[in-house]
Hints:
CATH class: Alpha Beta
Distance between the termini: 14 Å
Strand order of the largest sheet: 3-2-1-4
CATH topology: Double Stranded RNA Binding Domain
Number of helices: 2
Helix content: 25-40%
Radius of gyration: 14 Å
Strand content: 25-35%
Shape: globular
Number of strands: 4
Amino acid sequence: MTRTYTFVFDPDPEGGFVVTCPALPGLVTHGATIEEARMMARDAMEGYIEVLIEDGEEVPESDAPQAAPRFDRLAHTLRTEKTPIFEQLSAQIAPAV
């Protein structure tokens, strides 16, 4: 099964991007470039989901496809410069054994 979540790529004033995921509370990572931030986000997401499964916890449902554009519009209203970037990333989830 595949799950897709919206990630927030927020420009860090000191450089790079701070990455969070509203559907996965506590997930925070950083990348010096947007490409590195995406790679770090995917790695953090996969690790987060792996721990949920190992702990017998429920993996959150996917975000709706409309979530990223809605978050993006919200960010534009909240900031006047250095707007965060919202993207959706997917992870394959193996059934618990």
